[in-house]
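Table S2 (continued). Query chain:
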Amino acid sequence: MSKKAENIDLDALLEAIKEVKINGKSIRSVASQYNIPKSNLSRYISNLTANNVDFATADANDIKNMIAPMVTYGPKTYFTAEQEMELMKYVLFASNIHYGLSIVELKTLAYQYAKKIGIEYPAEWDTNGHAGKHWYYLFMKRHPNLSLRKPQQVSANRSKAFNKENVDGFYKNLSDVLAANEYEPHRIWNMDECGMPTVPTKAVKQIAEKGQKQVATTTSAERGTNVSLALAANAYGNTVPAFFIFPKAYMREIYLTHAGHGATGDANGSGYMTSDTFVKWMKHFIVHSGAKKGSPTLLLLDNFTAHLSIEAIDLALAHDITMVSFPPHCTHKLQPLDATVFGPLKTALAKQHDAWQKSNIGVKFDIHHIPQIADICLDIAATPRNIKAGFASCGIYPFNPDNFSESDFVAANPTDEMPSTSIEQNDFERRIVVLSADDIEPGAHEEVATSESSFATSSTSSSAITPAVLRQALNAVGPLNLGTPAKKSNRGRKPMKAAILTSPEVVADLREKADAKRKKIEQQKEKGTKKGPPAKKNKPSARPTRQAKRAARPTRDVEFCILCFDDMPERMTAQNTAKCIECQREVHLRCVYASPNTFKCPNCESDGE
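Corresponding output:
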């Protein structure tokens, strides 16, 4: 088998090296056992030994990353192992600060990097302005720790807020609470809201004719109406029944007709959590979680303003519930529901919505259908396995304050230059491999000129360039450039921090703010009742106003369409309304698929049968 077609298994190669270095077997016997050329195995072991690698304690991934550049895939590489290792570190650095490189950007960087340090490369790189596709595939194959991923969009506020200070503050509060009471996993809860629109933001892929320019799918509207779902789950993997928040002024029984057992909801006009709605959710949570005095319960939630009402805090204190808030803009990393439940829930929602539309062609998907498919989606996404994985990945249960390493906080203070030492390794999981003193040159930390001529050396001398020079070359030609941020403003709210919301200090502060707000409202009312200048009298109009016309209209018995359950128009005409020929009940004309002159409502049809 030729070198080009040979597929080298790095895991098997690592096991062979350990057999020689740890178990003391001969290179010849191990090479024969693992079907590896003796000369190649000897070369790999010599290179690793020269770097002072401790095979007994070194992490397997670190050793494989050092072996990968030594393994030859296809033709001879243009970069040396050291030059390519620095390029790989730059790619990881860009990903860690949330500015990862695309395939085109990597190929362009490889070309500019090769040109900067003066190595030989194909002439077609100059013609295209970037490295070839074949080089990219071999580069990714030589570095198995790299893969092409679809990133999750994270706002700049979240990137900056997720720093060591905020995260350590949250774990300090959680540690104090856990030290005061011993909470069983079924008493540790996380609560959060999730939007469930009537039109999903992501469509399900469908099979269509190959080459068709546009593939469409039918939705109920151009823009969907959002219904919020408030969900609570505990570290044991259980959830309380769903709580829905509808964007209507009044709550109707029809909204929860198809909801799951125990589910309830509220309507507040906006469809989002408010202080009054959160109090209703707290009562719902207390009933289904069994929270009571003498049975301590821990509730983790974000510090949204609606969660900070005094009435809700008093309910929590009365039922021995300790409320701990996450730091702002950090819930994507610290909140279990965000980490492992809401992602699969949104995916399941899109699939179930698509299936509902196919089985109800021509019927509008409305807000009262949301609880019906939400119950199915929760069975798919809010499984005990997903919930437990969320609590573990966030370091809440089992409690792990060292859950995040330094590399997780790099994006909080982004820079356009790769640091001289990589911080991608976790001190508790990986061991830093130290290079020998002979590999470190005395001038590695000195300032080096970055002009084109300083790197334009021959391919023979380019192999002697120090890692510091290579990093400086990558920083000079790389796509990362630090911009000038706008000046900070002192206006607006002060940023909040993680806190124990039921602690005496926080409760006293919330009561003080509530009293100040109430006094301000009372003062505004008093100012409004004071006598001002006499108001101008408007001449009475001969024509009645629109409000007077509405007040004069008789109230209708039928307030909604019995086919789609939407409100009927205020002014019903033959252009928008059809009547049942039996009971004369009015429905939307768009809901009638037969002739309006022969339409019978479902009630009359069932009576006739």
